[in-house]
Amino acid sequence: MKPTEPQPTNPRRDFIKKSAIGLAAFTIVPRYVLGGQGFIAPSDKLTKAVIGVGSMGRGHFEYEGTQVVAICDVDKRHIAQALPSLDKGVKTFNDYRELIKLPEVDIVHIATPPHWHGIMSVDAANAGKDVWCEKPMTHTIGEGKRVMEAVQQHGRMFRLNTWFRFKDTFYGMGTTVKPIKKLVDSGLLGWPLKVTVGKHTGYDWKFYWVGKENLPVEPVPAELDYERWLGPAPFKPYSKHRVHQTFRGYWDYDGGGLADMGQHYIDPIQYFLGKDNDSPVSVEIDAPQQHSDAVGTWRRITYTYADGCQIILDGEGKDTNVPYIEGPKGKLYPGFKSDIPDLQRKLAAFPDPEPQITSFTESVKTRQKFALNEENGHRSCNIVNIGLVALRLGRSLQFDPVKQEFIDDEGANKLINPVMRAPYTI
């Protein structure tokens, strides 16, 4: 992607001419080395380092306007699998703290299990890097707050890697989110609205991401640094089912299908309801009692906002003929079907939603916030984490969207900032 900023100033060109050593060492010079915000790399490409190069991390090596210059993983097999698809000379690490010190890195892409997302995002921002993080943004509400603070304190750009608020067909709706946002903004459905996310509106909660109780203790594979894989999570003896793809079934690292798919499904709802700076005031849970270690399934989760809007997560596929969005004036069904007569003609009279920056390279080079950033990403991740806290505790909860804490529930509030295993802190 060609830079869209004004041409570099003379002082910057003078700096580059005088920096013979720097030019010899790097084909891509980090933006901040050249004078901080407002400068772009001399190359058309930004440099990227990827932490976690399992299948998810390897799937994101190619991105417009970027070049991978370093990777990190605690499993030597992942490093070996990644290197053939990368340029020679890419640096490899076992410890991400060494990777984020590299002066030649512009963007740090975090593709680890979620219990690492918050710490790594904060450390990368503190090191002066822009951050691209996989979903869910953080494992806890408190970690999300810290990521926001660090990103904004250091003037970093942040991208959360779920994209349905701005591109691609949105599951069962048969359209991108843009016309849904336009419909909601038009008022044709009325207010407040109820959104149902489940099997019959086109969404799979992936209940195969459940944990196993009474796991066998197994020897740690020689290629895996299990101690570093655990990181801030409580120590549990190694069992194959805890790590890599199946880690999603354990509370210490993730939260089953809700944590895996929740931000994909819920973030666009937060966007089209116009609640990017808000959170629900209550969550109601209908689920079996959860195991203390292994994530289970649930039947129904209901979030309610102060204005009466609701998000219903239908886990058991109970609602067979339910609309995706229901308001006092109309309904919207999968396939963008509605009971409002002549909807498309009526909708054409209303303005389109405000444009968004949907290229992270553009965001990094222009220093303008990405469409899904540390602020709105934290709010949509909050919805997931509010539900996970209620699910773990087995009770409905009240939430304060301003303080971002639970009301009159000490047990729930302890899960906002759970104690991390020493020496890890955030």
Automatic annotation (TrEMBL):
InterPro entries: Gfo/Idh/MocA-like_OxRdtase_N (IPR000683), Gfo/Idh/MocA_oxidrdct_glycsds (IPR050463), Gfo/Idh/MocA_OxRdtase_bact_C (IPR043906), NAD(P)-bd_dom_sf (IPR036291)
Keywords of the record: Oxidoreductase
GO molecular function, one term: oxidoreductase activity
Ranges where the Gfo/Idh/MocA-like oxidoreductase N-terminal domain occurs: 49-160
Residue stretches making up the Gfo/Idh/MocA-like oxidoreductase bacterial type C-terminal domain: 173-426
Pfam name, any one: GFO_IDH_MocA
Protein name: Gfo/Idh/MocA family oxidoreductase
Organism: Pedobacter frigoris
